[in-house]
């Protein structure tokens, strides 16, 4: 391993740096992924070490667990999700047919589709939505007629609301401040001291990045991952209560 990275992580970092350098050389957006949460953190750190900040992580919907990395040139203005080469594919089947995330993933991989070409798979009753790289969408539409033993029909696009996928557990609490240790304590049902210990040990990711400061600020829309505890989306921080504390709402991925 070089620089503390595994061979796989070093290859990912090289791909991210290639995307950044090609973006700067050609003045065109460049993309990599899909990436899981840990890989997204590696991508962000690699880009920032290169002194590059014009990137965006996007997976096709606001709560995406798997995301693509997009590097954008200076003239582009604010990076836009619409620029990403991904699309949603809707899979329909009888509501009485029970399919799981594993069923979908197994069928796609068996068809020769790589994991990096697949984003989130949101499984619902009679309708599921999968986010894929644009380049494989037509292949999916032409090749996939069954998931496991269940007959399915595929079409481009997805209607709102999206299937919930794994679903969420809602969390409500009152916290002392918008510090990371307060948010982790509320999400995980821990004391602030225990939460701070987890943060200091590198067990907490904030928006895909390892954060070692318990005082780091947390904002609405931020994503938290706590090793051994779960993954969370922060929905609300505030307003202040009469005693000066903050109401706090989050969701835990199930």
From TrEMBL:
Keywords recorded for this protein, A-Z: RNA-binding
Keyword Iron assigned: no
Any one Pfam family match given in the protein's UniProt record, by short name: YlmH_RBD
Protein name stated in the entry: Ribosome-associated protein quality control protein P2 RNA-binding domain-containing protein
Cited CDD domains: S4
Membrane-spanning parts: none
Species of the source: Candidatus Gallacutalibacter pullicola
One MF term in the entry's GO annotations: RNA binding
Boundaries of every Ribosome-associated protein quality control protein P2 RNA-binding domain copy: 79-156
UniProt key word RNA-binding: yes
Organism classification: Bacteria, Bacillati, Bacillota, Clostridia, Eubacteriales
């Amino acid at each position: 391993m070089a620089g503390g990275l595994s061979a796989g992580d070093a290859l990912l970092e090289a791909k991210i740096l290639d995307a950044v350098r090609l973006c700067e050389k050609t003045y065109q957006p460049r993309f990599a992924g899909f990436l899981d949460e840990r890989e997204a953190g590696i991508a962000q750190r690699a880009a920032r070490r290169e002194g590059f900040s014009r990137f965006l992580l996007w997976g096709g919907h606001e709560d995406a667990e798997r995301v693509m990395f997009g590097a954008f040139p200076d003239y582009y203005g604010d990076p836009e999700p619409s620029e990403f080469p991904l699309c949603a594919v809707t899979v329909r089947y009888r509501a009485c047919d029970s399919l799981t995330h594993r069923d979908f993933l197994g069928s796609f991989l068996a068809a020769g589709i790589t994991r990096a070409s697949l984003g989130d798979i949101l499984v619902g009753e009679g309708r599921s939505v999968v986010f894929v790289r644009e380049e494989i969408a037509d292949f999916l539409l032409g090749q996939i007629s069954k998931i496991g033993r269940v007959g399915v029909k595929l079409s481009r696009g997805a209607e709102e609301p999206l299937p919930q996928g794994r679903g969420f557990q809602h969390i409500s609490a009152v916290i002392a401040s918008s510090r990371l240790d307060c948010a982790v304590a509320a999400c995980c049902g821990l004391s602030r001291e225990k939460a701070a210990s987890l943060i200091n040990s590198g067990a907490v990711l904030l928006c895909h990045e390892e954060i070692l400061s318990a005082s780091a600020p947390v904002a609405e829309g931020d994503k938290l991952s706590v090793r051994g505890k779960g993954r969370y989306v922060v929905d609300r921080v505030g307003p202040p209560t009469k005693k000066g504390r903050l109401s706090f709402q989050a969701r835990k991925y199930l």
